[in-house]
């Protein structure tokens, strides 16, 4: 029987601000290479023995999910949209109910989509070794052999008769909360504690039974949300009303700490949840001085330091730095001591309190057809760069308060203005009067890029009347 990966990708990842923000969190960013963590997770759990994945995500990320899956030549068997984030327990219950209705004996591998596991083959081997226990009705959690006294992870304590070096699932004594440094050092020395990876293997029915025993009220609400779900294009929208009554709680608290049919699969390979910039530095293969630099970053006499510029327009230079993290973007810069990297959440909270858009939004705004970037904003005008994917089209729309001027700088745009349709090529432009019904499309096989100049008394993204949209977005929805 094949295993269905359940990829959780609705989180906000604020500990990796400014690269990871609520509008585009870390699972979708290229943190460690040319593909995102989400794409790497999907690729890791494909091939022999695996079915197509089921994705749990938020409404704002649904098109990012499909676009990134398509880029690695994958498709999900289901994409479930949570009305609001309610932590991992309700998400896993929803996936189990949705899957068991389609495949009663289905096996599920639940995995966060923002972890780094450099050796996919070794991880798949560990999953295969754990499968017999899961098929027998156990809930198998994966524990990582610790390499340091880490205070940022929860731990799993093996039972006294367990073999930490075994290559098969072992009995589990208990879950341990994130420790202080002294306790972490003691656990590392004891040799019978593993990091809690938050990865689980079980049958869908086993998990439903666990919810019936330990969280029946939650299961009832989630079942209502799944039963009342609505299909929207290729997405399944869980019903909002029952979901509102679902408790916000992790699977560890709701089920794992109460269940008796638990086992832990030790995994000796490399793993990181990339929970902070210190972890990114560690996973980025520092040079002989312990320094990591990106393109457009220069280190002079630096040690144990991460210098990362996310923009070719921003050159980041560090001189004489030790144990520093510096991350530069067009609209925000983070500088922190590596030992304080876990406090980035405090910075995000402070920015939110000040009303700074940088707390949650990136300069680039992703849409199902591509993305746009605001370049200049002034009194009654705004200039944007708009990138439209090959074959994609914006909605047929009009605006109450602004007119627009489009200049194509790459590719060819097919432009509709009221009853006229025209092809606009590089270095050509077209004017969209106030109130005109218009649409732009990319009929080509390469990205189309244009500069848009908006003028008017109100330039908000919600100034839109939508007449036709291939992405089924409602009136007033952005883009």
Explained architecture:
- By secondary structure, the protein is an alpha/beta fold.
- It contains 11 helices and 28 strands.
- Strand 2, helix 2 (62-71) and strand 3 form a beta-alpha-beta unit.
Short description, anyone?
Helices cover 23% and strands 31% of the residues. The chain is an alpha/beta fold and 479 residues long. The chain has a six-stranded antiparallel beta sheet with strand order 18-19-20-27-22-25, with no helix packed on it. Strands 5-8-6-7-11 form a five-stranded mixed β-barrel.
List keywords for this structure.
six-stranded antiparallel beta sheet; 479 residues; 11 helices; 31% strand; five-stranded mixed barrel; globular; alpha/beta
Mean pLDDT, all residues: 94
| Main sheet makeup | 6 strands, antiparallel
Strand-residue fraction? 25-35%
**Backbone CA Rg:** 24 Å
Question: What structural class is derived from the secondary structure elements?
Answer: alpha/beta
**Count of β-strands:** 28
Low-confidence stretches: none
In what order do the strands lie side by side in the largest sheet?
A: 18-19-20-27-22-25
């Amino acid at each position: 029987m094949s295993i269905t990966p359940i990829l959780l990708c609705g989180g906000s990842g604020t500990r990796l601000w400014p690269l990871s923000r609520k509008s585009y969190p870390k699972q979708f960013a290229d943190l460690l290479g040319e593909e995102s963590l989400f794409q790497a997770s999907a690729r890791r759990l494909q091939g022999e023995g695996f079915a197509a994945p089921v994705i749990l995500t938020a409404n704002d990320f649904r098109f990012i999910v499909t676009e990134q899956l398509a880029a690695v030549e994958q498709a999900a068997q289901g994409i479930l949209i949570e009305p609001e984030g309610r932590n991992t327990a309700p998400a896993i219950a929803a996936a189990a109910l949705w899957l068991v209705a389609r495949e009663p004996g289905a096996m599920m591998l639940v995995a966060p989509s923002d972890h780094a596991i450099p050796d996919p083959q070794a991880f798949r081997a560990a999953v295969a070794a754990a499968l017999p226990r899961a098929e027998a009705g156990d809930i198998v959690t994966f524990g990582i052999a610790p390499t340091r006294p880490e205070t940022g992870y929860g731990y799993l304590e093996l039972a006294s008769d367990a073999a930490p070096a075994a290559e098969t699932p072992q009995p589990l004594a208990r879950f341990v909360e994130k420790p202080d440094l002294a306790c972490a050092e003691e656990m590392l020395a004891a040799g019978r504690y593993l990091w809690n990876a938050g990865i689980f293997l079980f049958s869908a029915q086993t998990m439903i039974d666990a919810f019936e025993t330990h969280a029946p009220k939650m299961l009832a609400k989630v079942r209502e949300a799944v039963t009342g779900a609505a299909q929207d294009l290729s997405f399944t929208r869980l019903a909002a009303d029952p979901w509102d009554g679902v408790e916000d709680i992790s699977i560890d608290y709701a089920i794992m700490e109460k269940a008796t049919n638990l086992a832990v699969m030790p995994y000796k390979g490399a793993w990181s949840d990339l929970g902070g910039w210190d972890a990114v530095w560690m996973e980025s293969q520092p040079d002989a001085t312990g320094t990591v630099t990106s393109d457009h970053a220069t280190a002079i006499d630096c040690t144990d330091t991460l210098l990362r510029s996310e923009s070719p327009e921003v050159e980041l230079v560090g001189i004489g730095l030790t144990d520093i993290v510096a991350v530069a973007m067009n609209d925000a810069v983070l500088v922190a001591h590596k030992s304080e990297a876990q406090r980035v959440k405090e910075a995000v909270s402070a920015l939110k309190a000040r009303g700074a858009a940088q707390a949650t939004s990136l300069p680039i705004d992703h849409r199902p057809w591509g993305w746009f970037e605001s370049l200049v904003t002034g009194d009654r005008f705004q200039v944007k760069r708009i990138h439209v994917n090959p074959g994609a089209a914006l909605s047929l729309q009009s605006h109450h308060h602004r007119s627009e001027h489009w200049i194509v700088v790459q590719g060819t745009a097919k432009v509709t203005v009221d009853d006229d349709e025209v092809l606009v090529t590089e270095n050509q432009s077209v004017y969209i009067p106030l109130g005109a019904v218009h649409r732009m499309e990319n009929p080509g096989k390469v990205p189309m890029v244009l500069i848009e100049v908006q003028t008017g008394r109100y330039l908000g993204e919600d100034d839109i009347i939508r007449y036709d949209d291939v992405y089924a977005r409602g009136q007033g929805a952005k883009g």
